[in-house]
């Protein structure tokens, strides 16, 4: 996943999404548990 936010990839992504990408992207991290809170409801995955 981190490869997708390397400078070379960001140049490619920038062509698909001009002006829409942040200058400092962050790779996602794994979730800590097995539930996600959405609209005051815990969803299990």
Structure explained in plain terms:
The chain is an alpha+beta fold and 45 residues long. The protein has one domain. It has one helix and two strands. The protein has one helix at 7-16, and strands at 35-38, 41-44. It has a two-stranded antiparallel sheet. Strand 1 (35-38) and strand 2 (41-44) form a beta hairpin. The chain is elongated and about 40 Å long. The model has no long low-confidence stretch (mean pLDDT 91).
Q: Please give the count of helices.
A: 1
Q: Structural class given helices, strands, pairing?
A: alpha+beta
* Overall mean confidence score, pLDDT: 91
Strand order of the largest sheet: 1-2
Order of helices and strands: HEE
Gap from first CA to last CA: 21 Å
The main pleated sheet reads as:
2 strands, antiparallel
Count of DSSP strands:
2
Nutshell version of this structure?
The chain has 45 residues and is an alpha+beta fold. It has one helix spanning 7-16; strands at 35-38, 41-44.
Write the layout of secondary structure elements.
Blueprint: H1 7-16, E1 35-38, E2 41-44
Antiparallel strand pairs: 1-2
Key structural traits:
2 strands; single chain; two-stranded antiparallel sheet; 45 residues; 1 helix
């Amino acid at each position: 996943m981190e490869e997708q936010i390397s400078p070379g990839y960001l140049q490619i992504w920038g062509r698909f999404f001009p002006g829409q990408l942040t200058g400092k992207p962050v790779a996602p991290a794994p979730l800590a548990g097995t539930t996600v809170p959405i609209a005051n409801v815990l969803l299990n995955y």
